[in-house]
Amino acid sequence: MLSLLLSGCGSVQYYGQAVSGHLDLMLRRTPIAGQIADPATPGELRGQLSEALSIRRFASYALGLPDNNSYRNYADLDRDYVVWGVTATPALSLQPEQWCFLLVGCLSYRGYYAEADARRFAAELAGQGLDVYVGGASAYSTLGWFADPVLNTMLHRDSTWLALIMFHELAHQQLFINNDTAFNEAYAETVARAGVERWLQSRNRPEVLAGFRATLAYEQAFLRLVTGTRAELKSLYASDLSDVRQLEQKQAVFIAMRQQYAKLKRDWNGRRDYDRWFALELNNAQLAAVATYLELVPPMQRLLARLDNDLPAFYAAMNKLTGCSPAERRAFLQGTETTANYQDQP
Asked: Which positions ≥6 away from 180 have C-beta within 8 Å?
């Protein structure tokens, strides 16, 4: 595998850390059933792993997600995140940089198993005048090439969060289109959210479901703020102003964004979901990272609703987009084509 990866694009050092990091993760796997049966397993962890197996079964029989060996093992990585992703953009552009890899094509981020490595690479990019953002990830998918385990990094929150992550990563195994990060992430997130709704309903947990929906409502308000800010910056970067003036105006836009967030929080009953995000020095790359994961979720959810929330029909509609370009997929999702017309095409 190492020789295969090193024959592709990128540095030996980068691929070396990718291979060694993933191999370390794989070697730490132990069967969840064995962990549950082991009397030495802490009670809290035993409960979390039992819940994980229940979620795993639901993913296949109720959501039609891949029924394979993923998430039937557990691995403790002794750290808070499995990988750290680096996103970068030009200082006066919202377009993220792309990095191309074997098997998965080009992505709008680059992942590292060690935070220090990620921040070192981010510093190199910042030295080139790029805006950079480093964010930790709780999980990632090998797209079915390996049996992905449940990780300790996935267990920091409640079972709703665990279900969301597992459904998201399994959705990547079901459908992944090379060279279109935004589509892939939005597809996985749309499936995951629909899956959590069904999972909570099946367990008759209306209060938890209401809390999950409230969290998503706060996220929608945050996404609208990010989208509006990106629209302002797009207009600014397309203007005839000098680079110096654009950089000055850019900072003014981010100041206004912080002020708008402060206003939003007044109606959030003390919730501080995005305080850590706003504590960072805002830049284009930070906005790009949010857009990559969330911008296409609302139109995908509208499509799912138009299909009467029929997940198999949604899977089929999304599979029909595999032969399109990223721009064509985005145009379709944003409503320039009707679902009926598209589904009638061969």
From this structure: 326, 329
